[in-house]
Amino acid sequence: MEAVAVAAALGFLLLAGAGGSAGDEAREAAAVRALLTRLLGPGPAAAFSVSVERALAAESGLDTYRLSGGGAGARVQLLGSTGVAAAAGLHRYLRDFCGCHVAWSGSQLRLPQPLPAVPEVLTEATPNRYRYYQNVCTHSYSFVWWDWARWEREIDWMALNGINLALAWNGQEAIWQRVYLALGMTQSEIDEYFTGPAFLAWGRMGNLHTWDGPLTRSWHLKQLYLQHRILDRMRSFGMIPVLPAFAGHVPKAITRVFPQVNVTQLGSWGHFNCSYSCSFLLAPEDPLFPVVGSLFLRELTKEFGTDHIYGADTFNEMQPPSSEPAYLAAATAAVYQAMTAVDPDAVWLLQGWLFHHQRTFWGPAQVGAVLGAVPRGRLLVLDLFAESQPMYIRTASFQGQPFIWCMLHNFGGNQGLFGALEAVNRGPAAARLFPNSTMVGTGMTPEGIGQNEVVYALMAELGWRKDPVADLEAWVTSFAARRYGVSHKDAETAWKLLLRSVYNCSAEAYSGHNQSPLVKRPSLQMGTTVWYNRSDVFEAWWLLLTAAPALASSPAFLYDLVDVTRQAAQELISLYYEEARTAYLNKELVPLLRAGGILAYELLPALDKVLASDSRFLLGSWLKQAREMAVSEAEAHFYEQNSRYQLTLWGPEGNILDYANKQLAGLVADYYTPRWQLFVEMLVQSLAQGVPFQQQQFDKNAFELEEAFVLSTRRYPSQPQGDTVDLAKKFFLKYYPRPPYMVVYFSCGSF
User: Fold this and answer.
1) How far apart are CA 438 and CA 446, in angstroms?
2) From residue 367, how far is each of 44, 360, 439, 648 by CA, in Å?
3) How big is the CA angle at 265 (ends 260 and 271), to the nearest 5 degrees?
4) Cross-strand bridge partners of residue 76
5) pLDDT digit string, tens, across residues 729-747
6) What is the dihedral angle through the alpha carbons of 220, 226, 231, 236, rounded to the nearest 10 degrees?
7) Whole-angstrom distance, CA of residue 171 vs CA of residue 230
8) What are the helix and strand counts (H, E) for the chain?
9) Residue 377 contacts by C-beta under 8 Å, 6 or more apart in sequence?
């Protein structure tokens, strides 16, 4: 495709959201001033002057900010072409001039006095029309139990990081309920269809129905309330919220209401049987398709307004009923036409994960059928996993459709130090230089957040950079100094070691999903290889402890100390597991008792105590969020069980067992530890009795433990206990490894 045609294809999107009245500019400036007050307090916020003028971006049409002023007696001048641009400029000033740090785990905002002057007027325009954020799964793995206060902090974080395009999918089930009732379904049929709150992401993409539901009336009301507040705040900054649209999935009850309807039942998903999966897909040619699609979008936009970009995923991790290009084109066109019947300016945001997940199905003809079924420039594709498996290369820049280069990074909201910073750093610039590139933005699309903040800090910065960071080692050193509020040689050296090890996964087929034996149901076949030298993690651990006397007043440092101690424990568990497995295979009972005993009866309980010292690593905090969403004790119990299922069994029979694993105090003590103790006991029993280890029997016994944890009503502390530095130091002194454990593993496949 010629470059001129590419530019024409992008024209529609480049104009989307442009313009705006003087009233919009004033509202966006007021939103940034309010953010300043929330972030810094009214006194420090008064030292900044904020204004928004669209004319600042008149030449490029791309978000631009300008910084000036500051110094003794002078206010810092923040000017942005949008509220998001002004907020990004504020973040740039706080980061580069004040040495501050904004993060999920806690921000470091000690401002120098007087505020530093900007030596020369600094004007910066982003090279990216869009800086996108969120994955459909993030709403279940991270956002599901949030109240407005937590959403407010997240939207502030989004604005400061220059995000201008994001999903806003709360409350859609309340709209669907109205539509289904209008179509003639009963309330009981609707209740049977919706999943529980922790699994709504997969209901929304057609993977699941019914599982761990239903949704309560109070849930619908609270989500409608939240969605209105979320949209109001996002729009106040000039962000573009992406609303949901009809993808074609319908409840089975539609066949009762309309006996002649043409539907296809898709295959099962995620090891669930058809009681919970095998969703019904409305045929694109059925006259009911545009009726359902337009009913939903009309009701949705009547309730929430619109910014004209909509998300829908018809075949996410599900094989279409036909591979014929004509069918795929018709199915795609039907979704788009249902959007434009209500909103002629509709743009469809499509997660490109389907092309990655089932590559054998999605050949050139099938991909082309989908991409060509929507007018060029009206389909905006998220290249969802571009840091590892970029689809723009395989699809010739999505055959002319605009796309956003996205970093997925995390699966299931897992913890575990992980990243491919070099690939992330160089990926967007390479995509922009790809022949006839149709890239229009960068994005962050993790399944879960609240982990590996260095990775997201870099990716957010790249949304405003034309070129990669020249020196990642220098960048990560500055990151550490800002994060802790002071430069410290040992802490900075620790971060350099982490950069060259856990954050340096360079193999193409790496996985951002924690496969550590710590969080997996034990067996004799578990992998323990990692892509880095474990000694780098252990040395970084030691260096952080060395820095603790100077940095222990920093909440971010304490978080990192727990996180790196947790990672070191994860490495140690792999090593003790290898030792126990070798002893068992060699029929050596005493070494098995030693290694297995340390792992299951000492190391895991000690790790739980370290985790319990920080509120950000507590199962009690996690479950408290769920319970506080409820309006009755019965509802609180239901939400807590939803949350427990997601963290562990992920289905009634361990269907996607431990996919969303976390290392939280309480979860380690009462879920992972008993499972490991059972494994060690059965290995010892097998060796002592001279009979083979029965994995199938172990799995059955382990499931009983796992299910008992999910169904338990035990309450867990939501306040930390113990001194983090003292507990981490004791853990270090007892378990810090010596040779021969300081060995190198290079296979890039698990943590």
Assistant:
1) 23
2) 53, 11, 18, 35
3) 160
4) 48, 69
5) 999 999 998 754 444 333 3
6) 160
7) 11
8) 31, 15
9) 8, 9, 10, 11, 12, 13, 401, 402
